Amino acid sequence: MNLAVGPMRVFVGLLVAVGSLALPAGAAPLDLFNAVVVTPEPDSTPEQKAVEMLVEEVAARSLARWEVRRELPADNVPVIVVGRHSVLTSYGEAAANAVGEAPAGGKAEGYRVKTVSGRGAPTVLVVGNDARGVLFGCGRLLQEMRMTRESVQLDAAVDIDTAPVTPLRGHQLGFRPKVNSYDGWTAPMWEQYYRDLIVFGTNAVELMPPRTDDAADSPHFPLPQIDMMAEMSQLAKDYGLDLWIWYPALDEDYTKPETVEFALREWGEVFERLPHISVVFVPGGDPGHTPPGVLFNLLEKQTANLQKHHPDAQMWMSPQSFDAAGTEEFYALMEKQPKWLSGIVYGPQNFAMLPALRERVPSNYPIRRYPDITHSIASQFAVPNWDPAYALTENREVINPRPTQFAEIYRLWDHLAYGFLTYSEGCNDDVNKILWSALGWDPDVDVNGVMRAYARYFIGPELEESFAQGLLALERNWIGPLATNAGVETTWKQFEQMLAEASPQVKLKWRFQQAIYRANYDEYNRRRLHYETSLEQQAMDALRQADRLGADVAMKRATAILERSLTEPVAQDIRARVFEMAEALYQSIRMQHSVERYQAIAVRRGANLDLVDYPLNSRIWLNNEFEAIRNLDTEAEKRAALDVIVNWDNPGPGGFYDDLGQPGAQPHLHPGVGWRLDPERRETPHDAIHSMPDWRMSWVTYAETLRDQPLRMEYTNLDPGAQYAVKATYTGDRLTAELRLVADGEHEIHGYMTKPMPVAPVQFDVPRAATADGTLALEWTQTPGVGGAGRGTQVAEVWLIRK
User: Fold this and answer.
1) Region of residue 550 (phi > 0: left; psi between -120 and 50: alpha; otherwise: beta)
2) Is it true that the peptide bond before 40 is cis, omega within 30 degrees of 0?
3) How far apart are CA 778 and CA 746, in angstroms?
4) Which pLDDT belongs to residue 198?
5) E-strand spans in 229-374?
6) Looking at residue 98, what is its pLDDT?
7) Cα–Cα distance measured from residue 795 to residue 779, given in angstroms and rounded to the nearest whole number
8) Phi, psi at residue 619, to the nearest 5°?
9) Alpha-carbon distance 15 to 549, whole Å?
10) How far apart are CA 87 and CA 107, in angstroms?
11) From CA 600, how far away is CA 180, in angstroms rounded?
């Protein structure tokens, strides 16, 4: 095509007319509601999709109907010029002068968004260095505009010239049953989400094959998995995104030729079906159990298999879940520089931390981060010192905006990695995805600014500031003990006011519904925690009257008090709002907040509506204890048993008691280096929970360390001449772990032992030599070299008793 003839002459005239004169700062916003998009014939599908995205997303928010033309409209019509720099400057010297130098020095994916003068109506330039630059430039214009019903405005003095710092910025979007929303999405919903991520700079997505460690089907699937996978691959191709596949090696034994042949055939059928693959990533574990050497042999064959169908596609892998020996074997294999391998992935359950991995892996292999931004407990980046009331109810896949914390986590190791694709299992982590994409573009970006852009674009400019501040407040709701966090009630009131004042259109937005759900769930937890804690205290008061009332009467009174949480529940209006929003979210975005109501795959997979009334005190354990005590033979035995309950946390004169895992109740726990320097908790103990309703609350919560890191407690000002005993309760989610306890690094108090079942405290004398200087350090460790998640060193309670 001769670009200098026909209507393109008029297009050149436009470029010359607008020149490069910037509009003055402080001028009135530009009115773009009746704008026309002027763009050359696109050279690629991604450029075409960029313009489609721009026009359709503006229409969805404002009802504007922007026409796309190749020629200049009348002077009184606002114009959006969209194009690739090389094309726009090819129309001659005058056009090249008008467009100016390539954005961001010509860097890949760079763009310029600029308002210019020279016509009688507003004019905006969107110039990209390449197809992705055009795509992300259109996305940035969408971010910057203020779009409401029948209004599209843009600040008059916009002048943005930028390119991304991080080459790879992506998110895992797994269409499978083990997610809290994705399995219900249709292809149009996926395209919309691709666009939402693109607007904030995402350039890659990661899919999953039909066979993983998951159920074979979901009641929510609108298409078979392989059909949806093909649709999503085509979408990535159309928008010019990198397409990764997370592909676990699940078969029993890859040393058997028939197993390898089966895997090659199965994977090859998937590779052949997909129109677009950039990279296949195979995790070393979680799931998977293949030794490194065997896995490398398989992946060399699978790389050739992949490249039969996609010649430029790459193979990456991770050493996830390898134990100490497996990790060393992996390093030895990497020293041989396998040619089939293009890169390494660092994700959850890596035995070594990223700095150590980067040091040991040859520098010619890039490392991609695989950060878990979706889970709040039992995860790579669990919420620091999360209050047990939240952990037990909102649980692992709660709606979890953590903008300031994840900004710190992102920046800590950003310099060590080529980029990232985040680990996600649903849209509960949507705010975190947008934040990571924005940080990938510019690691120094202002977090508050990202939240404002999020609110402006997804909710509406009228709620830009209030919703952005609300997201930050939801994060603060989770900082510190819930019982004393007065901000939780304030946050709830703010979101309830936003809901009351919102337009019908805003109320239908799923991101708005998510925030309302979370704010109400948090406040309902706060009200219940205060109430149920008070009831347990009142029940203990009743039990203390056993000597006067008799044991049976005291237990009857205590039971009646505890049962008020069921017969006289609090905050039922807030609870009703939680259920209302759960229904709204299922209808709008297929979030499955309940196993029974919405057929979620499991409670821990985002179905926290089923935990909304989980007991926040020891009511069930106490009632079980009362039943056993009633069957004792004598009144004296009954009273003695009640005395144990009432004085459970009393270590006696000169003693100490720590309820580990309960923030504010563990003064002797060594804090480690802290989550800001150690967000994966490799050298820092972490508060955790294991949901067991019939356990005491002090057993449900515990402190843990990972892998070979000891759990340490320290005591000072002890009586040098006294004999001390240590009593401890070992619980956690890995009850088969074996623990060893050592005092002062040299005195073994007990060797490796399994955790007692049923749960019960165990007691041991402390060697006098350990306390002779008036101090004591206790260290628990599990069997060394553990792989997988590394959990096991888990201690719930510790008494230091002066005998």
Assistant:
1) left
2) no
3) 10
4) 98
5) 242-246, 279-282, 314-317, 341-346, 367-369
6) 79
7) 11
8) -55, -50
9) 93
10) 16
11) 7
Residues 6+ apart with CB under 8 A from 724: 718, 765, 766, 771, 776, 800, 801, 802, 803
- What distance in Å separates the CA atoms of residue 130 and residue 113, rounded to the nearest whole number? 14
| pLDDT tens per residue across span 267-309 | 999 999 999 999 999 999 999 989 999 999 999 999 999 999 9
**How high is the pLDDT of residue 3?**
36
Indicate the burial class of 744 (C-beta count within 10 angstroms; 0-12, 13-18, 19 or more).
Answer: middle
Place of tokens 């892996």: 361
Q: What are the distances in angstroms from CA 264 to CA 282, 298, 458, 754?
A: 14, 9, 43, 42
Full-model pTM:
0.95
8 Å CB contact between 32 and 154: yes
Handedness of CA 765, 766, 767, 773 (dihedral sign): negative
Residues 235, 191: Cα–Cα separation, whole Å: 7
Token code pair at residue 330: 């992996």
- From the list 537, 553, 470, 554, the residue with the least C-alpha distance to 506 is 470
d(CA 723, CA 540): 31
- For the chain, residues with pLDDT lower than 70 are 1-26
Residue 360: which region, alpha, beta or left (left: phi > 0; alpha: psi -120 to 50)?
alpha
For the chain, count helices (H), then strands (E): 28, 28
Nearest CA to 246 among 212, 216, 276, 215? 212
pLDDT value for 1: 29
The per-residue b/e assignment along 786-797, b for 16 or more CB within 10 angstroms, e otherwise, is bbbbbbbbbbbb
Alpha helices in 616-671 (DSSP H): 619-630, 635-646
| Type of residue at 586 | Y
Res 119: pLDDT: 78
User: What pLDDT score does 17 carry?
Assistant: 58
Burial class (CB in 10 A: 0-12, 13-18, 19+), 705: buried
* Bridge pairing between strands 36-38 and 79-84: parallel
Q: What phi-psi label fits residue 150: left (phi over 0), alpha (psi between -120 and 50 degrees) or beta?
A: left
**pLDDT at site 24:** 65
- Supply the DSSP symbol for 647: T
